[in-house]
Task: inverse folding
């Protein structure tokens, strides 16, 4: 066994470092709709040179309840996985926008993607975030260059946004999605103001299951223009919701992919989901 | 689409928390061989109750150059993956021992698994670490209940330890393994004392490739009692070393598994390697 | 780029041939219960030497509606996949028994695994097939050395057999399983005698979903001694049945694995399912 | 557990049948170059309507030594896998052309993709097969709409064709590729005329390894315009050839993907390789 090429490991480690030329930056978007500044993480692919550069497709990637804009970068390993998938061509270079719609103090800080009292997040998302970020980061601009994905509460958000704005997204990938929920009357006036209580109500009011059940023919037609992918762990308590949405859409002739993989409601599941969702978004860009 | 079971997400998140009943602790082992205390991380599976509990199989899991005992816990996601694999039965409950053999200051702190001047690490490993940890944590005790794995410098360490002590390990899984290296003469007296220089020399002196090339019949027989698995990224500069070891062993009739997956010399590769290595160790326990 | 080892392809092809040392034979079992001889395919692993050889674990592998004992060998590629998995240690050497319970003429030839008029197949299976084949082929003999799996009608058969005989199987892997069905009254006397009509009725009467719903505490306890795995394609019309069984068992505290992979009700799905089911059976043998 | 939807399996099986709307046909191309008619299998995707239909991308898919144009259809399961991948969008609808370049009687019937005495196959391929089939089946026509792949001798063929005609293929996926071989002098005049002897010589003369070693700067530039993927089993005797080609190309700055998966030189390997190669061809079409 002759050694034709034997390498010093130090050299290897240095070489490896040069791969990391993409970056995730934290931006802040002042919102008149919300009356506050919203932090947004943005993945910029290797070679990105600002608004003067190529025009990229864009993926909106949503965090879950208790989460923030930092989650996909810090815990989800987005950069490593996306860099790798771009390297093999399984994903195309894209901009990924990860806005904050929450925080850990769910009883006092509003979490969620829907319009509620004093937090018209959906209005902000479509009226401010989308146009401003796409202009600033030279991305998106049309359905064929825009995709959405998210986990848990953000999985529900991505589905509901795609249902209500099917003209804006080419594809939707929902992980462990919170697509509907139980509600009850508030027991106290305080509870009525509790932010988690409000989030829960808004999820019920925006039931993705009801939306499909009640969809008329025109709505069904528009839903067929979006590519759907539902992915949930077999030991995730939310699993049945994804199955029901898949079957509900199938009953109306709307095609979707469904995967039940091994797992629970955790970051290991969502990290591995990136290897499915980023190529899926890519395949459905123009 | 009726909703028979609709769950509150808050309930889900609480439920999920109760899965994390395994733990990783940081222990410290005073070593007379090394003249210092060595920090050791230890994964204890769900249900572990100390020395009075069941007797578990043990996996030694080695870090790479610049690394420490904390790496597999903090960056590698060992606990999440092993918990999940134990949950499906793909891995058996086991103790995982992750000793420190390095640190980031490679020029001044000795890194590596081999005996060098003032750092008889291999002596420490087999003479102190192994017997003391296995007694303390109710694990191992025989070849059939002991496996070894590692990444990069630790991948090399796991191979060389298994070559030199084939009676002690049932299996060896080497990730992106540093199995040999180039050396040159020290250019200055200072360089001769440089810790990285010394590490590099020790890797050359313990060439896993040479070991197989020079193995006599008795040695080859003993190597056949270990199950070998070599796993390296296609864009890893060390890749050829794993291929050469695989072919060198095959030429001597020693069976090994080889996988070249997509990837480079990084934690994404090693994290995904856990899904292969932990079941592999499991299959080869008694 | 020097070529140290360059091989003639003819040599390669010859070498490859020598791997195929396992075999699938077609045996015939005269049955007094059924009043006819039943053809049975049997996979014997490399090194199998008859009743005087090692005692092997056994897997019963059931075909679907319209199928026969030949299906897993001819269309499913069992031998290639199992040989390969035994080669890596992902499966242990085992005997696989594939009895005929059908044929393509479903209107005139009885298909199915349950007792119906003039075809007491379950009685045959447990009273004749199992004891005779395990004695003849040096396999099984206890729950810990016996597993069952099957596709579609055979997926349903494997689940129902495991529900009714939980003391006999360590694990059950059901692919695209037919676990329940719709029935209606026969419209003509002829239809009442139609073999497909009878099969359909027997599936309804042996509903695996009802079985779990109606299980008392003792039954639930016994079901927990079997390891369950349900695997069905996302575009398979039977998919909801697997999900319902998974949720029904979960509601009673019976753990099962569920996977929804991409696919429909076809052999590509079942062929790839072998890579999951054979290791699953292996892990749950003693 | 209520059953909202319970299906009759007979209905399922009927529904499933309607998925198979693509087809593989056997065509015959009279060749003046070869002085004989060459059988060619052609996969036509669902919805294909002849030359008046859409213009499709094309994949040339080559068989191995001893093989024929029927292999990928009969043994490789091409239709099932490609239909499924088109269904999920992992592959685009494409035409697949599988010409005959061999047969089982390798000593008397010429096998191979290179020009040899009385069998100018490469001339036939590029001068007759490609233009005629692409015109007839409304496909290809440019590098961006053309890919090539193959197994063993056909893996070598696909690499060498791509090396010699880099302006014609957007990507090349080589499975278990025969990229070079040993030769010796013919021992008898008869051996000199032996077809297998001639095939072997032609593989040596068209060494893909030498081609890269000897490539000048212009050639290297042209090779960089092709996307390369090498995929070989870890227990395949040809494995080292793929590794050497990967390293040889890397040394010249030509990027390629390399995968060493578990396996030998058999159809199980090539069948599973389709799930990688068809998406790879797709990603690299325009």
Result:
């Amino acid at each position: 066994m002759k050694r034709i090429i034997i390498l010093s490991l130090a050299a290897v480690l240095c070489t490896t470092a040069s791969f990391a030329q993409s970056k995730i930056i934290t931006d802040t978007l002042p919102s008149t709709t919300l009356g506050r500044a919203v932090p947004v993480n943005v993945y910029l692919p290797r070679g990105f040179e600002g608004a003067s550069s190529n025009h990229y497709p864009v993926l909106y990637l949503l965090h879950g309840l208790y989460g923030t804009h930092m989650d996909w970068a810090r815990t989800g390993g987005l950069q490593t996985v996306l860099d790798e998938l771009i390297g093999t061509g399984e994903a195309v270079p894209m901009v990924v926008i990860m806005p904050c719609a929450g925080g850990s103090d769910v009883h006092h800080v509003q979490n969620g993607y829907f319009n509620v009292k004093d937090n018209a997040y959906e209005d902000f998302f479509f009226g401010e975030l989308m146009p401003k970020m796409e202009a600033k980061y030279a991305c998106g601009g049309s359905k064929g260059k825009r995709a959405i994905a998210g986990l848990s509460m953000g999985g529900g958000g991505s589905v509901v946004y795609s249902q209500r704005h099917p003209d804006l997204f080419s594809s939707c990938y929902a992980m462990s999605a919170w697509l509907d929920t139980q509600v009850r009357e508030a027991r106290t006036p305080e509870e009525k103001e509790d932010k988690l209580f409000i989030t829960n109500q808004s999820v019920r009011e925006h039931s993705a299951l009801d939306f499909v059940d009640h969809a008329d023919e025109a709505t069904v037609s528009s839903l067929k223009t979006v590519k759907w992918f539902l992915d949930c762990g077999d030991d995730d308590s939310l699993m049945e919701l994804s199955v029901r949405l898949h079957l509900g859409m199938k009953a109306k002739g709307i095609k979707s992919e469904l995967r039940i993989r091994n797992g629970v409601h955790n970051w290991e599941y969502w990290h591995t989901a990136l290897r499915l969702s980023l190529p899926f978004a890519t395949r459905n860009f123009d």
Q: What stands out?
A: The first strand of chain C starts at residue 23 and ends at 31.
